[in-house]
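Running log. JK asked me to keep both predictions on one page so they can be read side by side. First protein, sequence followed by its tokens:
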Amino acid sequence: SHFGMVCRYVAGASNLPFFPIRSYYESDIPRVNPKIVPMTSPYDDATEVYVVPPLRPDVSIVHAQRADASGDAQIWGLLGCQKEAAFAGKRVIVVCEEVVEESVIRQDPNRTVIPGVVVDAVVEEPFACHPSFAQGYYDRDNAFYLEWDRIARDPERLATWLKEWVFDLGTHADYREKRGAAHWDALRPGDAMSGEVNYGRYA
């Protein structure tokens, strides 16, 4: 399950041999996945849980709204499990909407979800989440998803689409250009600025 995968990332990020999870009960998933193992709690009245093994990707690629050149990455809105995936990865690539100066990151440190110390590379790639969204930068492209549902059901149409929009394009910048500026402008949200806080200046 999706939550089971998150728990595996947590185990990998925490250097744990496994992670306990209760949500597999009353499901068929443990029956078909031998990596999901039942375990009895050693601390109470023999509560049964399942455990999942750690997940440590060779490379974790995570998305952030902004990062500095050192890889300190800031995320706001829905966080998902990007922090856990980053800390679990043997190598980490941060893809961000914009690279900013370190001073910008330092002005709002609590939004720094992924510290540069675990990051191996930073890639600035606007609209990298499309057709999904990046909070404050662009909205979810619902028209794309509706069209994709129809495309994906037809193997010939899918092959044609992949050739035009993936294989025949050299870079993501080519993809953005092919979509056109009007397409991206239509996805941009209005402003809803966050309130300021006072971190205090200390001697």
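And the second, directly underneath as requested:
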Amino acid sequence: MLTLGIALLVAAVVLFVAEAHVPAGGMLGAGGVVALVAGAWIALVAAGAGLLVAVPVAVGTGVVSAAVLALVASKTVRAMRLPTSSGSESLVGRTGDVRAALEAGGAPGQVFVEGALWRAEAANEYEEREALRVGDRVVVERVRGLTLCVRKAEQWERET
């Protein structure tokens, strides 16, 4: 019986480590908590500690590990909801200045966004394209490879 308790405790540790490395949505961690409580209870009873000691120790261990798991899960979810802060995807919605004119016919130009010069094209594919002159304020609509698709910034967007 003691061997089963120790095996469950080892399984709990394995499940906690797996939870840290595999996106399982907390299911591996929950299984680890159950294995920890069951393993602690079985190991303590098999060692002769009695129910008076085994139950509070097993439940206390389970509550503490579940609280830690919940804290880590909430921090993980909060971090996943943050906007992208690196890479080209983070440029969508940012404003910049035209440095080389974008012609109405679709000829690419250059824009300066977030401290870097980018190749740019007008984003309005279905409307009549408006030429963007040097100094115009633009907003990045999407990123296609190393080319930004931009549109002219509205008045309220120019002030940011």
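Observation for JK regarding the second prediction: The chain has four helices and five strands.
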